[in-house]
Design brief:
By secondary structure, the protein is an alpha+beta fold. 26% of the residues lie in helices and 28% in strands. It folds into two domains: 122 residues, Aminotransferase class 4, branched-chain amino acid transferase, N-terminal domain (D-amino Acid Aminotransferase, Chain A, domain 1, 2-Layer Sandwich), CATH 3.30.470; 158 residues, D-amino Acid Aminotransferase, subunit A, domain 2 (D-amino Acid Aminotransferase, Chain A, domain 2). A hairpin with a 2-residue loop joins strand 13 and strand 14. The protein is globular. It binds pyridoxal-5'-phosphate (PLP). The site of pyridoxal-5'-phosphate has 14 residues, from helix 7 and strand 12.
């Protein structure tokens, strides 16, 4: 889908305070070339990003996304973004999104090779219609990610807790899932624990208890999963972060993949095991489509 809006940010220090950062933004033609061929984001995937859902011009859950962007930057030894500067850039981009559902993408790259500063930019675009998949769901296969659960502590240079631009592996996993006849994938650790999907978090239901894999094993802490847990707690359900063995997947009563743009995709099969679409799915979707601060 064509980009509709783009702005380049001239990053300032994380502690710089200003009421108005608009002088540090340059709106550019989203269809015109804007990056140097020396950009390390394109040469090496060396940078971090966030994708924020926008509904009728309202950017959802901006603070958790900005906090995760800062955390990803820290893990990658990139300068920590100035939260207020990026918050204002998100507001400008979200206002440029057409009515309906859109996405604002934030990118912070290591910049041009041997250059003085990181490159930072924000885009806004409408998104595909996910209403069908939110209602009818996805089938998934489990795929071995090839690392043990404690890989993040043992090998932090793999940057597994950061949302880096290096998503080629995640995209390859989705292609493998499709080759195996499924819509999506769930990564397992090499020692047999459940992790996440290539572009989404996993939530499992066991009776009235909802569980997601603890975000300590080098997985991304999903902003949508946090929102869903808040909603579920408010409805009186028990929620928890746990180490989930792969064997638990076949005992779940229901399961969902959740993420900022697709929102909720109920899982209708994990490998050979079928699952019903839980009646809560519609309420979760409705909640995630409502404006959240
Ligand atoms: N895990 C991975 C690997 C992701 O790429 C994403 C989103 O892109 C998520 C989880 C879900 O994160 P969020 O709910 O913040 O979109």
């Amino acid at each position: 889908m064509a980009q509709r809006f783009a702005l380049i940010i001239d990053p300032v220090g994380s502690s710089e305070e200003r009421a108005d950062f608009s002088g540090t933004f340059t709106v550019v033609d989203a269809a015109a070339p804007a990056l140097s061929v020396g950009e390390l984001s394109t040469q090496r995937g060396d940078g971090v990003f966030e994708t924020i859902g926008v509904i009728d011009g309202h950017a959802q859950e901006v603070t958790p996304h900005l906090e995760r962007l800062a955390n990803s930057a820290r893990i990658c030894d990139l300068p920590v973004p100035n939260q207020e500067q990026w918050r204002q850039a998100v507001a400008v981009a979200a206002a440029a999104c057409p009515a309906g559902e859109g996405a604002v993408k934030l990118i912070l790259s290591r910049g041009v090779e041997h250059g003085p500063t990181p490159t930072a930019w924000v885009t806004a675009a409408p998104v595909a219609d996910f209403s069908e998949v939110r209602a009818t769901g996805v089938t998934v296969v489990t795929l071995d990610r090839g690392y043990p659960l404690d890989v993040a502590e043992r090998s932090p240079w793999l940057l597994l807790g950061a949302k880096t631009l290096s998503y080629a592996v995640n995209m390859a996993a989705l292609r493998e899932a499709r080759r195996r006849g499924a819509d999506d994938a769930i990564f397992l650790s090499s020692d047999g624990f459940v992790l996440e999907a290539p572009t989404a978090s996993l939530i499992l239901r066991f009776g009235d208890r909802f569980v997601t894999p603890a975000p300590t094993g080098g997985i991304l802490h999903g902003t949508t999963q946090l929102s869903v847990f808040e909603y579920l707690s408010g409805q009186g359900f028990e929620t928890g972060y746990e180490q989930v063995p792969a064997s638990a997947l076949s005992t779940a009563d229901a399961a969902w993949l959740v993420s900022s743009i697709r929102l909720v995709a109920p899982i209708t099969a994990i490998d050979a095991h079928s699952l019903p679409v839980d009646p809560l799915t519609a309420a979760l979707t409705e909640y995630l489509l409502s404006p959240r601060p």
